[in-house]
Amino acid sequence: MLSAHIRGTQMSESDHWVVEKMSTLYLRTSGFFRLGCLRTGLAMHRSACGCRRGAKPRFMGQKEGYFTVWNAVKGVFSFLGRFIAALARLIAIPLGGLWRLFLRLGILWKVVSAVLVIGLGGLYLYFIWQTQAWTNFDPDYPAKYSYQNATTPGEEVKAEAAPAEVPSTAAPAEQPATAPSTGQNSDAATANQPVQAAQLPSSARKCSRSAIAEVAADLTDFNVNQNAWISSMLLYKLGFFGLDWDRTPFLDNKASFQRGINAAVRRTAIELVDNIGRLRGTSQIDGDLQKARGNLQFAEDSWYFGLSPFGPKTPTPSYYRSAIKDLRAFNGRLENCQATFDARADNLIQFVDRIASDLGSTSAILKDRAENYHAGWFDTRADDRFWFAYGQLYAYYGLLRAAHSDFRGVLAEKHLDGVWDEMEKQMRAALDMQPFIVSNGSPDAWFTPSHLTTMGFYILRVRSNLVDVKQVLER
Q1: Tell me, what's the pLDDT at 20?
Q2: Which of 60, 151, 437, 460 has the lowest tally of Cβ within 10 angstroms?
């Protein structure tokens, strides 16, 4: 060491201490010659690479380089372990204080507190289960609808008349061998005509249902009946120790996915009311569709009680369940030929244009997050953006399959079936991407992929197909 060469000189004890520290600092910070001995946040061990105090500067060999990489990897996991331990301490400190307070209480208050804690624990278990159990989630759900034999909604279809029982009349035991005279035959036929018409039942008029309205109702049923609506649950609104669940990497994926589905259904309900469910722009708005649109526009996070405004409220799922009934009531009246479904090319153009604009907005949100935040696996908002976009594609995949059925005449006339089928394939391919953890790495990253960029790529492909369809329809 440097201090060893000057130890024999006349120096004070403090001077020796300064020289000793300076020489130690030099050996620890001598560039890449001593890379394995730097005291970084990764806490590399000197013993692993053979770099001990007092060693002379030297170049690292291949073996030492491998040790350095291994130490770096161990350092990363060590950091994660310390982070988890700190998070556990953050949770344990208030719980420990509550436990000490519990021990000071009387027996009655202990019983009351225990009941409250057990009840709260049960609520949290239910909440966690609902956020992780995605009941009836199936990217291939449009396959259950029979679109092959469907006809244009509102178009009258032939209903099979049920055979009617002809009342028995007294008939002669034997028919004469000779035919009656011409006059008698015509009189008998004329007399029997009204009787025969009365005996034949009049077949009720039946029309085709709307696949778009059916899928929209089923998607909302999937959100609020087959699954719990997460965004309005009390524990979701309370957050993680006051922190919004959307700002944490935990328990928020399903809520974002449901909101994405609801955004697509809302857009569809608006188009049904304004254009598709009425003749031109001068006819009356359908009452059931108008009620469905209003119910679907209700706030997504309403619980039984609120602070703004203060007082009891109707929870969000109740409004969405009413929207399901309204959409199915419209389809029921349409089946009885009492409602309107205007399957014109200009209505399809409007519907496609609105969906393209909706997806364009989502792609812009993904682009902003992917370009300005490169936290990799630790971006706590990346999963919200990803699963919202996934929910939109999940819903629009079924709704556009339904539109293919409802507007089959328009698409066949414009020879757009092939383009539409390709668009459906693009949407189905996007639904295969279901990462366990959503990463928002830079586009050229090695170990942290950018799931947002990939999802944005699929969305832009679908949007490009929608624009192509719109351009052909406008010709």
Answers
A1: 59
A2: 437
